[in-house]
Fold Lysine-specific demethylase JMJ16 isoform X3.
Amino acid sequence: MRGCPSCINCVKVTARWHPKDAIREDLEEAPIFHPTEEEFKDTLTYIASLRSKAETYGICRIVPPTCWKPPCFLQREHVWEKSEFVAQIQRIDGHQVRRIDGHQEIMASACENTKNKRKRDVEVALGSQLCKRNTSTPNNHNVEECDCESEPGPKFSLKTFKEYADVFKNQYFNYNDKKKFIGSNIKLAIPEQSEPSVENIEGEYGRIVQNPSEEIEVLCCNKLEAGVFSSGFPIVSDPVAANAYPEYLKSGWNLNNILSGSLLSFESPDVSCNLDPNVSVGMCFSAVNWKVEEHHLYSLSYIHLGEPKVWYSVPGRFAVNFETIWKKYLPDLHAGKHHMHDTMEMQLSCSILKAEGIPVYRCVQYPREFVLVFPRVYHSGFYCGFNCSESVSFAPLEWLLHGQNAVDLYREQRKKTLFSYDKLLLGAANEAVRAQWETGLCMKSTSSDSLTYKGAYIKNEFLTKAFNTRIQSEILKRKFLTSSLVSQRMDEKFYATCRRECSICLCDLHLSAVGCSCSNDKFACLDHAKHFCSCTWSNKIFFYRYEISELNVLRQALDGKLSAVFKWAKEYLGLTLNSAASKRSKPRSENVGGSTFPAQDLHTKKSISQTAANKSKEKPLQLQEILNASKTKQNEEVSQVSQTSGDTHRSYGTHSKTKTDLLQSSCASGTKGMSSVGTKVDTEMDGSKVTISKKGDPKASKVSSVTNLRYLSFLQEHVLLDVSSDSTSTSSSDSEVA
């Protein structure tokens, strides 16, 4: 009972603990990981390392190193005592459906010994208001439906909610206790008694939700926006926190930062802000119903303070089976609800799931620990007492294939997407090209930043597979449209007012769309091009962001083809090599191929940082000096190789001469373009001869391990760095680089 004439937040608990009737399933525990301090530094890399070990369970627990001691900013006075939220009322008795005596009889919301269980009106006191709810509607499978949706309740601060939660738990488990109320003028005298264990609470929770003897209502609040209410972690907008705890402000385990390191960072701020961290507050028996994350994203949860939370998980590979069982046992609840995979008001008990052959795993999360949920995993749980946690959804590279499956499922269910999958995929591909540009052409090392981890994008198997699959699908769908419709490239106005989506299936139209002259705001995806309006086919227009030929260049760049990397980076990312040269103030003795240059040779690279005019005048002299200085070193190494390679020395001589002529020609002309250099990067090994690919030569690049590394590295370090991106000089180079 909650509320009285003098106090709306007082509580009187008449129900009592029934330890002899406990219902607790024997479930296998999810894995627990203890990262070292070094492993813990790189958040997303560590999470990626857990996939092969924990994804089969759907969930895992991460215990941080002992050095991890972030402050809890929810306990600051202005948040703890003054920030208020509206609690939600949860009716949990009979909240789960279960088997009875081996039969498929289902009970929900009461058991046989509950007085007047079939028809009753429950009056709930909320201050001066009385709310009535009816739970008497039976369905065709003897399922008594319970109003398990949360109802708005009273307002609390974190301080007063904790007081309420503590009194409830003490009264419930201290069955000989006297009456107690929460009130400003009432002194609480809670007797000292040992706390019930997690197993005790779990057994009692199972009894309440499956075989109750009383009506039980609890309070919770599952979605407080951290950016509005408060995050438990330090944030940039709080200068005091930023200065006092810089290591936790920048940490990848600070849930406010993890989005910036995931694929969701490629979305616009107004979209990604909808996926910001949420703060959850609960009390003993507060339930988290079966749910799966939007777009099948990963989820990371952290308990700032309070008591443990018990999780249950069904691995993602059993998601379809889970949904089938849910429809089987609760057909009426499923009727008319196409989006049941997001959240479920009724819970299936673990006993039903196990009986149907679906594995369920258990995880107990304690304060200052993380729980990681993998894609498309159904998960539920409950709190063992007052609990304040924070969680966030995110999308690492490993999510991409799951993301495409989610898009297909949403299209089938005609459900609106939260963000554009294609935009994230293209953003990841561009980042991969940028990383290859920096490491392969600009000779930079990959960042060790725990959030961006650019090195992971280079030739990433998940990214490459997801991109190839998506482009292949796009090619098949465009094959007919491009030959029968007028085509038009998307411009800025296409996305000027809002994110475009199919008027039929609601899928995002970032990559391509079909419009009609009858409407400026109505579009369709390629699957529904014929169905979104009744106009003739000739009135429709095909819109595209990139041509297939352009997407193929990006695909080649992802595979590591250097000429494709250069072309995409220059034309679509606006990157320039001469701008990178100005940043290279120190000589580097090691290049991307692993070969080295003598220290005295590298001193000539200091001149790269001079003004543009001086570079233009001194460029031929610099290149000639480098060529002469490195030629002796290269010939010595090739001579060693020739002892085991027959006539490799003769091959290198031809190659070296061609290279000398090429560089001298480039120096003499002093041109900025790539027409004489870019076409010489791709070479071919034919027997004992090395040939240089000419313009339009489609042959693949296959060169010797010695000559190619030194030649390519030499070109990258000393020639390509001075190439201008002036639009006047790119016309001829672009075709050759491609």
The mean pLDDT is 74. The longest strand covers residues 217-225. Residues 28-96+170-177+194-396 form a domain with the Jelly Rolls fold (CATH 2.60.120.650). The longest helix spans residues 612-642.
